[in-house]
Design brief:
Elements lengths: L9 H5 L6 H8 L5 H6 L12 H11 L4 H9 L16 H8 L4 H15 L2 H12 L2 H14 L4 H17 L5 H11 L17 H8 L13 H7 L1
Helix pairs in contact: 2-9, 4-5, 6-7, 7-8
Length: 231
Amino acid sequence: MPRDIPDAGASYYLSRLPGYLGEYLGLTGDTLGGVEMLALGLATHYTLSARLPLIEEQLGRLNTDDPSVIDNCLKKHRALDYPNERSVLHRIEMANRCFGRDTVEEIISALEGEAALSNDQWCLSTLKKLREASPLSLKISLRSIRESRFQTFEQCVAREYRISLRVVSKEISKDFCEGVRARLVDKSFAPKWNPPSLEQVSDDMIDRFFAPLDEYEPDLELPTIMQEACA
């Protein structure tokens, strides 16, 4: 259902980024570069791609799984860099003003207000991404990220699993298949979303994606070792 709804634990870490940056990334589908991920604590090391063959060679010679030894090896090759002027990290205040709103409609209205005042290209680009996305997926994504702020990793992936099952089943909406058709099959890049507008996406429709699974479809349970790692 492009823009993709956060899954594989994404709602958990997006909800824990500074301010409302997670909402921005989750709703627009924007990506982060290595330098940005390092700055946000989503990555532990950053280096230049040209150094990767040498790093792989040296890691192969270590013959150890000791994390401290591996970490010291990686630190020797780290590169110092900073997010460029186009990075969203230079727009956090504006992102917070817009994406901190309660609803997708209010987020878009705030972006439109900022764009009208300044004709800011970041606002205009962000508005374009939101207007191209499935209205249904936008509302699901926002609610999922907001709920994640108060949930454990285990609770987040279980909720994402429920949402994903209902997305691919087409029992509520066919937007996922429509997005695949428009982008990958026909390559028209002109999907026909249903519902076609945010105003037509009802609360009841959203609630159905978040509802518990029925008795014949057990909820997701993480292996014990993964639960301990995420605790």
